[in-house]
Amino acid sequence: MKNKGCQTRQDIIAKALELFSVKGYFNTSINDILEATGLTKGGLYGHFQSKEALWEAAYDEAVIIWREIIFRDINETMNPLERIRRLIKNDMCNYLGKEVFPGGCFFLNMLVELSGQSEEMKKRILRGFKGVERLIASWLKEAEQKGMVVPGLDHEEISNFIFITLNGAAALYAATRDPKVWRRTVSQLSVYLKNFETPG
Hints:
The protein is mainly alpha-helical and 200 residues long. It has helices at residues 2-23, 30-37, 41-45, 51-70, 80-96, 106-114, 119-145, 155-176, 180-194.
C-alpha cells in the first residue's frame, strides 16, 4: 500500500507539473487536476493539503529534471570555462530546444505569472535563478585563478549577463518556437566568453 501511495503521489505531481507548465498556476483548477489524475477531491487532498502545496512539489520535481539535464557532463570537466559553455549548451539545446516542459521554460513562465501574485512563490524561483548566477560567477573566478581569463573581471556582471541572455532566449523561443533563437544564443555566448580568455 505504501508503494502504491508513493506512485499515486508521483503521478499527481507529474500531471500537475504538466498542467502548470501549459496552463499556468492560476489557470489550472483543482478540477483540472482531478480530471487529469482521475482522483476524487478526497484522494487528492490525502496527498496534498492545497494547490500551493502541490505546486511546491511540482516545482521540486521540475528542479530535479532541470538539474539532470543542465549539469550533464559538467561535474567531470576540470576546465571552468568549458563548464560554463556546457551549461549554456545544455540549457539551450537539451532543455529549451527539446521542450522538456510542454509550455516552454517552466521556471521563467512561473516567475512571470507569479510576480505580483505570490511573493513567496516568486522568491523561491528567484533564489534558484540567483543560485545559477552565483555558480557561473564562481566558475569565472576559478578560471581567473587558473590564469585562463584576463584578471580584474567583474564575475557577477558577466554571470548576470549570461543568465539574462539565456532567459531572454527562453522567452523569445516560447513565442516563436524558432530553433535559431537557441542556436544563435549558444553561438553568441561562446563568442562573448572568448573575449575574456587569455591568449595562448
